[in-house]
Amino acid sequence: MGNNKAKLNAFHHRLAQLTFFDPACGCGNFLVIAYRELRQLELAILEKVHKKAQLLEIDTLIKLDVNQCYGIELEEFPAQIAQVALWLTDHQMNQQVSAMFGVYFVRIPLKTSATIVHANALQIDWRNVCPHASFIMAIRLLLAKIFAIYNKMQI
C-alpha cells in the first residue's frame, strides 16, 4: 500500500461507500468474511496515514460499518445468526483498532445493523432489500436453486 495520504484517504472514503449483498446469505459467512477483510484493509489504511499514533477521536476515523451488508435468508434463525455474527465481527475489529491506536473503541449502544431480510430471494424484489449493491455474493448458490426449481417444473 502506498504512502500518498490523499490517495489513501480517498480510497478509504470509497470503501465506506461500498455495499455487499448476499441473496442467499444463510448464517452470513460471505458477508462476515467480506466485512472482516474490509475492516482489516481500513486498519491498514489508518496505520499508514496515522502511523500508529494515539488518536483521541478514533471513532471519527472509522468509516466502515455493518450497515454496508445486506442479505436475504429463507430461514429465520440463520438470518438472525447472520445479524449477530456481523455485530460480533465488528466488535472484534474494534478491539484491533483499540490495540493499534491505544484508545478504547466500541460501538455501544448498537446504532447500526446489517440489513438481513427473512424472505425467499426468488419471490421478492432484491432492490427493496439492497437498492444499490456494489457487490452481489453467492450468486452460484442462488442460480443452483433457480435451476432446481426449473428442472422440477420440466418433469
Automatic annotation (TrEMBL):
Which protein, by its recorded name, is this?
A: site-specific DNA-methyltransferase (adenine-specific)
> Source species, please?
Chromatium okenii
Q: Which UniProt keywords apply?
A: Methyltransferase, Transferase
Q: Which reaction does it catalyse?
A: a 2'-deoxyadenosine in DNA + S-adenosyl-L-methionine = an N(6)-methyl-2'-deoxyadenosine in DNA + S-adenosyl-L-homocysteine + H(+)
- Select a single GO molecular function from the record's annotations and give it: site-specific DNA-methyltransferase (adenine-specific) activity
Which EC main class describes this enzyme? Answer: transferase
Any signal peptide, and if so, which residues?
none
The coiled-coil segments of this chain are none
Pfam families (alphabetical): MmeI_Mtase
Establish whether keyword Protein biosynthesis is in the entry.
no
Residue ranges of domain MmeI-like DNA-methyltransferase in the record: 2-133
Q: Which GO terms describe its biological process?
A: methylation
Instruction: State its Enzyme Commission number(s).
Output: 2.1.1.72
